[in-house]
Amino acid sequence: MKSQIITLLLIISSYSVNAQSQVKTGWTFGVLPSIAYDTDLGFQYGALTNIYYHGDGSHYPEYLHSIYAEAAYTTKHNGLMRLNFDSRAILPGYRLSLDISYIPDEMSDFVGFNGYQAVYNNDWCNDESVNYLSRAFYKYRRNMFRAAADIQGSITEHIKWNAGLGVLCFNVGSVNINKLNKGESENDKLPDIESLYDKYRKWGLISDKENSGGSFPFVHIGTTFDTRDMSAAPSKGIWADAFFTYTAAFGGKSEFNSLKFNANFRQYLSLGTPKVVFAYRIGTQLSLAGSTPFYMLCYHNNLVLKRVLYESLGGSSSLRGIMRNRILSNGFLLANVELRFRIVNFNIGTQHFYIAGNPFVDAGIVIQPIDIEEENSILNVTLTGENASEYFDFDKSNIYRPHISGGIGLKIAMNENFIVSIDWARPFNNQDSGKKSNLYIKMGYLF
């Protein structure tokens, strides 16, 4: 039976306190429940809310405080829980952000290393194929807890300094097939087979110190250049940052101490009117020293957390239409290009709404590959009675081929800041996804 997802999103309440006709004052609230079903994940239930405080309205459409809370879970023990606080006023002259998140994931994607060097065979996880192995073949269990605090201060009007610290805790392992099969009919149960993650462990590509997870405190420091006219949906300006992140490791895993560098450049150009905006982002993450366990290669460092999870590369926060974690490497480059246009503006009571569209193209490429020794890998795979060409493409040039996708989005915004985002996308290469297209329902623009 093909895995299906049915998502229902409904804004059930939105109101403000001390609201005026054009400028928002006081508090504004948005509540968004979600209902979903997936054969592997089960029935999802939960809700999210974003609460803004605008004060006397002198800073509108920017807010003084934002409180974001989200809780969603499924009958198969997958979900997310997050509490985020962002304030421009609690410490005068500084911006403070606090985030606590827990993201249990019984079916996290794992296709291999270095993008196209890892061969993806969709028939192995397509239950309608004669070559079907399991929907869990390209999966592993990855539970993540994060606590982070960030502060921003001013150097000049448009240049800020940023500093932050936190901890990332991972618990990883093989998919718990018994948990996923609980309550399923015989026809719908997942076969208990060796996954790609298990094979990588057996072949020595995932070390013993990587296979269970760990705890990693981190600190980062950097600068931000910001000339945007607003943060949620800019119509003009530049937003760029550059920062270093040092990550340590607890539990006798000092080889995973690492230093990474990130840089991002985003520009927003009005095309004759603020209602039509050309926006693009170019970003990179590079490893400068140390090494990183495979389950942290999919984590995209950010100075200020806007989303619950930043995958790198592949998925809703980086390359829409391309499967999550398709590109695992030590360093990468990504680009996103969008044309944003407002279709209609309208009011419901004292609330201001607009609907917008945004066709887009996303692309990513490996620039620092993980070193995989060809001869040893082929030997280890062959010794287990398998064909290495079904798992690896050792043509070095293919590592540096770009992964590209395209699609179109729909945005429904309330009071400029509360933005429901619906993006539909598909990859240009079938190696990048088992689905012809992918649908994402999130909060806010991608960048």
Cα-atom radius of gyration: 22 Å
Main sheet, how many strands, which sense, barrel? 19 strands, antiparallel
| Assembly state of the chains shown | single chain
Number of H- or I-type helical stretches: 4
* Class per helix and strand makeup: mainly beta
> What is the highest CATH level, the class?
Mainly Beta
Estimate the strand proportion. over 45%
- Give the SSE string: EEEEEEEEEEHHEEEEEEHHEEE
Give average pLDDT, whole number: 89
Number of strands: 19
Spans with pLDDT under 50 lasting ≥5 residues?
1-21
Helix content estimate: under 10%
N-to-C span: 36 Å
Number of domains: 1
Q: What does the overall shape look like?
A: globular
Could you say what the CATH architecture is? Beta Barrel
Q: Determine the CATH topology.
A: Porin
Provide a compact summary of the structure.
With 447 residues, the chain is mainly beta. The protein is 6% helix and 47% strand. The longest helix is centred in the last third of the chain and has 10 residues.
Walkthrough of the structure:
By secondary structure, this protein is mainly β. The chain has one domain: Porin, CATH 2.40.160. The chain has a 19-stranded antiparallel beta sheet that branches. It is globular, with a radius of gyration of 22 Å.
